[in-house]
Amino acid sequence: MEDNITQLIDAMTTQESEMMEATGRRGRRDRTATNALMIVIVIMGFIGAVGNAVILYALYASKQHKKHALIVNQNALDFCSSFFLVVTYAVRLYNPGSAGSSATGCA
Q: Average pLDDT of 65-84?
């Protein structure tokens, strides 16, 4: 029973780079699926950023931003998070070496 648990823990903590070292290659299907997912995330982030920018513009143009401060703040935060989502995944998409690294840039 303990052997099964230790094998499960080893499998869960194995990094992608360790698996690449063991196998010598990364599957083509894995890269294609990862890239497709990143493209979808970039598109969704772009749509979110544009939508929040339109709402912010509409609130400021209609002078409603003073009445609805919470809505303006929430849209501003959503816009920033969507923008940084697009930037993060666009960098990972066009720089394949960073796809497996952590958020701090360490392997």
A: 92
